[in-house]
Amino acid sequence: MASSDDRTAGQWWDWHGEYVDVAIDELRMLGYAAYEAAGATTEDARFLFDGELDKTLQGDHARGIVYSPTNIRLARAGTLDLAAPIVVVRERGATALVSGGAHAVGRLVCKRAMEVAIDNARQYGVGVVGAHGGAGLLTQFVTMAVDAGMIGIVLSQTGPAVAPLGGYEPLLGNGPFAIGIPAGEHDPVIVDMSFTQTSASGVMLAAQQGEQIPEGLILDALGQPTTDANDFAPVDGSARTGREGAQGTLLPLGGHKGYAMLVALGLLSSLLSDTDAPWELTRDFAERGTTGSVLIAIDAGALNPHDVPARVDAFIDRLGDAPRKDGVDEILYPGQRSQQLRRERRDQGTVRVPVPHIEALRALAD
Questions:
Q1: Which of 102, 132, 203, 286 has the fewest CB atoms within 10 Å, i.e. is most exposed?
Q2: Within a domain: residue 281?
Q3: pTM for this one?
Q4: 128 touches 117 (CB < 8 A)
Q5: Is there a single domain that holds both residue 294 and residue 343?
């Protein structure tokens, strides 16, 4: 079983079954081939699987390559179209709207949207692009901006998983939000979070393993606190375990402050992408509304004529040099540990993977 040192901070969930060490090159070969066989181009197959693999490399086995088999099966069944044409449907100055149609893969739509945002930022200093699709794994998109020497920001919609404060009906998404800020000598600052006390995937992993979860994370269908992971199952169909029909809710991060952010992010995600509210994202693919994301690229040099990467480094160094409490070995900044873990595992060439995850991927290859 993986230890807490193998993962990033704040991740209370873990896979408690059997693991196996797998060569990263083997995982890439299987993942790329499976996505290409389902209709993706070589470039898109790499983008989709690399985003999932990164989560596994940082020890998050509630997400990562566990997503790959389901996504590929949906593509092979025609529910998702990995080859859907993705086009700019509206453009004005530094802003644009990108769509790929009802069956396009949201992450590929968002990839195109961030590409447009980066191009606009080169011309105007900023690019703001709405996308008809959920961003899913947000770090990938802010990293695109960082690699282009820009600040990246992403906000995205999800299906209803959170009740309005004081209510119990799931109406709000969990507020996925990410920022990437390029540094100089240091790794970039990467914030990738939701504004709920936990991710839905962590709760679903606990349900799958028959575990209780910590207090203060979810409410049941009647709005009562619960530690039974089976009391929660998102109504958008993203969960594959959990009590049938359960519509418990995730609790907002920080009470009323997190609730306010969920309202603002959910509203902006739908307004600025011309898509639907979270409660319209139903379980039925034939009837569900359109999920939206907003992708932003900012050329910091357009606003700050000084050496921006050096200033980011100095900011990071000051935090790291701060006096530490007893027992604290190092003060980290956002994204530092996850980037270290991915680099370490790439250097060693192998990663520990839950046995069912690699078996499912190998079955796709067969």
A1: 286
A2: yes
A3: 0.93
A4: yes
A5: no
